[in-house]
Amino acid sequence: MKSPVRKMFDEIANRYDFLNHALSGCQDILWRRSCCRELRKMTPGKRLLDLCGGTGDFAVTYEKFNGKPEVAVLGDFSYGMLKGAKGKKMTAVPVQLDAMKMPFADATFDVVLNGFGMRNLPDTDAGLRESARVLRDGGYLQVLEFFSPRNAFNKFFYKRLAPLFIPVLGAFFSKRDAYEYLVNSIIRFLPVKDFVALAEQNNFELVHVKPCFFGVAYRVLLRKAPQGNSAEGSA
User: Fold this and answer.
1) What is the pLDDT of residues 139-176, one digit of tens each?
2) Total structural domains in the chain?
3) Domain CATH for 28
4) How many beta carbons lie within 10 A of that of residue 67, not counting itself?
5) Is 180 a domain residue?
6) Are 31 and 212 in contact (CB under 8 A)?
7) Which terminus of the chain faces fewer neighbouring Cβ atoms within 10 Å, N or C?
8) Order of all β-strands in the sheet with 71-76
9) 141 and 114 Cβ atoms separated by less than 8 Å
10) CA gap 196, 93 in Å, rounded
11) Closest CA to 138 of 71, 72, 45, 74
């Protein structure tokens, strides 16, 4: 039986890219570019997984800055979202999957991208553990996400402004309840510091945490530590 969240993403898939760009003032495009530029400095390798990848915007951007991967997968639990990737210029092959139980062998990928998908997982700890499993030692997990607000600006934005205008725009262009879910999922999610601590418990080292637009979103770059090594890093 299809979960309510999966059903919701299937239903909004045809307007998802447009609303992402509109609601962020196209900042989401710039944030993905920044992530991929940073990965280019890391010489990350040629096996890519765009996890919770939706319609594939992150995978497309990755190729523009890092070249065509030898192996590339666009993974998402929503078939509707994966259909939305049709026609985009990318190497990644769409695969419908569960991010907490992926159909890949250990150490399959050099890079895992996750754009705005971590907070949609029922179990963040399990999602991080599974991402570490499919990454090779020294491989990178690049997370771009809206984390639970902690500073004054973000609390005002997400708890006062966002509940007023995001669901209204969602209702006009797509489905109101989907964009009410968006706001609520952000407020309920982990703060970025707690997310990093959880990642370090799952065999990741922190490379850096960088805020986007005063911390409305964050770019979190993690490296998989060799087995048996302690994870260390600083924000």
Assistant:
1) 999 999 999 998 888 888 888 887 877 777 667 566 77
2) 1
3) 3.40.50.150
4) 11
5) yes
6) yes
7) N
8) 93-96, 71-76, 47-51, 109-115, 135-145, 217-224, 204-212
9) yes
10) 29
11) 45
